[in-house]
Write a structure and sequence with these properties.
mainly alpha, 9 helices
Length: 200
């Protein structure tokens, strides 16, 4: 006798739909860019109606920001595992060197983030919401620096902002001129900062 299929609770169903829409959005945004992607395309890729999209996200901006937040959540969780497996800042950097060298080495993701940053700069209603995403990144890096360094010569949050700017700037150069700048240059910069902090 076949086992009865367990029905999903409403919250489980909503979570599953939301995850499917985020998966579809990530794929379609990567294929077409933020500006040329429609909610209809995302709904079709996910196998839902446009109404299902609006039941979970207020707008295309809202959906894209949710994609960014999920990426950042995944990066933070990955970093948590690296820190747990490391005994020092140098140890953590060695683990990072085994990866792509920069969170933004993924070209599709970096192009999308760059496109959306320009869009937000031109749209005052969107800019504060993207700024909140950027603040989350700075807060994450602030916590990471506090984990591995003490008695720094500058405020930790200020150093975290510098690190985030370095990461973004090096990613831009590495995507534009990969023969001249490697994504691992970001890890090299972190190594230099770590050495300088330890000497200070």
């Amino acid at each position: 006798m076949p086992m009865p299929v367990k029905r999903l609770s409403r919250s489980e169903s909503v979570a599953r739909t939301r995850a499917a829409l985020l998966d579809a959005a990530e794929a379609v945004f990567a294929e077409h860019g933020f500006g040329r992607t429609s909610l209809e395309q995302i709904a079709e890729r996910a196998g839902y109606t446009r109404g299902a999209v609006y039941a979970n996200f207020a707008s295309k901006d809202d959906l894209f920001l949710a994609v960014l937040d999920r990426w950042l959540d995944e990066d933070i969780e990955h970093a948590r595992h690296i820190n747990a497996d490391s005994h020092s800042a140098r140890d953590a950097l060695a683990h990072l060197r085994e990866l792509d060298g920069n969170r933004f080495a993924d070209r599709d993701r970096f192009l999308l983030l760059t496109e959306f940053r320009l869009y937000a700069l031109r749209n005052p209603d969107v800019a504060p919401r993207l700024a909140e995403y950027e603040r989350r990144g700075i807060a994450w890096y602030t916590d990471a620096i506090r984990t591995w360094a003490a008695d720094l010569p500058i405020p930790t949050e200020q150093l975290a902002t510098i690190v985030l700017a370095l990461e973004n700037g090096i990613a831009t150069l590495a995507h534009l001129a990969p023969d001249d700048v490697r994504h691992h240059a970001f890890i090299d910069a972190l190594d230099l900062l770590t050495r300088a902090a330890q000497r200070g």
